[in-house]
């Protein structure tokens, strides 16, 4: 987009695409407003779609508002990290950011995850609440002794490089229903903040599941994505993860299952010592057709903490 100037309350501001150099400011501003995305996650989102990020800056290049609009395919888009700095709230910047984002969305269906406080703002912008509600499960590690018996036909491998990541592409596509190879390459890349493992059927080498644990906050990792052919395979993946990665005993793991996966998630959580935490603080909102995609599985990086459960 072309950078453009606006005047708000006699102050000259610039609306433009964000550069990589601006991401530190995005982390700082979003954290001030309750986001728990790590800077690594924001980097991953940026690397996946650099043009997704729009910011509003003061003349001294101080960021005062930002938004990200991810165009997933020609039918779907997702809006995230909508923030206007406290001192600039109420002057129409949120509306300007949403208008820029909506322009890019075009005729696509669009969804977002809102805090309870921001719902009225989004309603004004034409969004409505989606029926999708997500529960979360949280807990510390629990070792299972008889793992071999639980899933005897499965081999678990660490994800170490791009070739390993490509082994989950077909499996992921079957579940997620669209192609997101580029995203997965960025998202699952091993780092001190992200550990991933793939499960293969011993006999024919078929991929039968994969898990990624991403750092959400100090001492908290989310298990996302966690896909497997059975609860036993999901358990084998998780147990391999907690045994082989340097998490330490006090780390909490959090799981955000989709509604369809809820019975499996309950069983998985029971086996692995996670407990149900209640509804997450975000509210899914949509514009266009009703949303069927689990967006948390696509860009599951923008969990906010500003609202009580
Ligand atoms: C939500 C937020 C982005 C709105 O930005 P803003 O610049 O203050 O909003 P605007 O001034 O553009 O307001 C646009 C309209 O929405 C209304 N509005 C803004 N925030 C609102 C709120 N929390 N509740 C109800 N209405 C609200 C305004 O009154 C205005 O209405 P009008 O067009 O009838 O005059 C901003 O308050 C914010 O960053 N909050 C903290 C972070 C956050 O909650 N982000 C969203 C999380 S999903």
Automatic annotation (TrEMBL):
Organism expressing this protein natively: Capitella teleta (Polychaete worm)
Molecular-function annotations in GO: acyltransferase activity, transferring groups other than amino-acyl groups
Secretion signal span: none
Location of the N-acetyltransferase domain: 13-145
Protein name: N-acetyltransferase domain-containing protein
Pfam families: Acetyltransf_10, Acetyltransf_18
Stretches that traverse the bilayer: none
Xref: InterPro entries: Acyl/Acetyltrans_Enzymes, Acyl_CoA_acyltransferase, GNAT_dom, YitH/HolE_GNAT
Gene3D superfamilies, per the entry: 3.40.630.30, 3.40.630.90
